[in-house]
Amino acid sequence: MAIRLAVFDVAGTTVRSGGGAVQRAMRSAIGAAGLELREGAMAGVTGMSKPQAIRTLLEGHGRMELIERTDAIHADFVVRMRRYYRDDPGVAAVDGAVQTFSVLRDAGILVALDTGFSRVILDEVLARLEWNGSGSPIDATISSDEVKRGRPHPDMIDALRERVGGVAPSEVVKIGDTPIDLYEGTMAKCGLVVGVLSGAHDLDSMMQHPNDALIGSVADLPRLLRERGLL
Description:
By secondary structure, the protein is α/β, with parallel strands linked by helices. It contains 9 helices and 6 strands; from the N terminus they run βααααβαβαβαβαβα.
């Protein structure tokens, strides 16, 4: 098996989680609509497309009358997240992420990002970290609103494989910090599915879900690939 494409999640995997910034924004947007989420409710929706996460949370709390407001709640969430990624001084890449991108690209492995965020939020992240334009360390990006189905469905990875020239599923490594990332990589039939512990879930949680390896952060990915003869 050879690896030709590495698909990384964004928040918590390649970009610092900001002490739960995504969860805070989601909780605040839903709270503004009149629902205070139960403690721990967010754990089951991390990594999902954000409109789907909102619907799941509303349904899980039995607030069916709020379902019709999903788009408005998501719009509020988008405003909050764009402001966070544009203005918060703590926004930064996970330590070692850019170096890992460089190692992979030097070895001929394409680097891509996929995310449960919408494109407007992803573009805010890319601009803040200067991961856009001609000097970008990224070869391709995709957001959940650019495909029919978000995670855990394989649509984003399938689309990325085609965008970069028809890479086979077995030639893809998927890296993420949530169980939804792991299921996405598994459903996409990726050659390697790797969980990182730099984001929303700890080792005990991630071990309960399908994976080929669990590592501390993306900084450890080159070592893992070398150990497996893939780099």
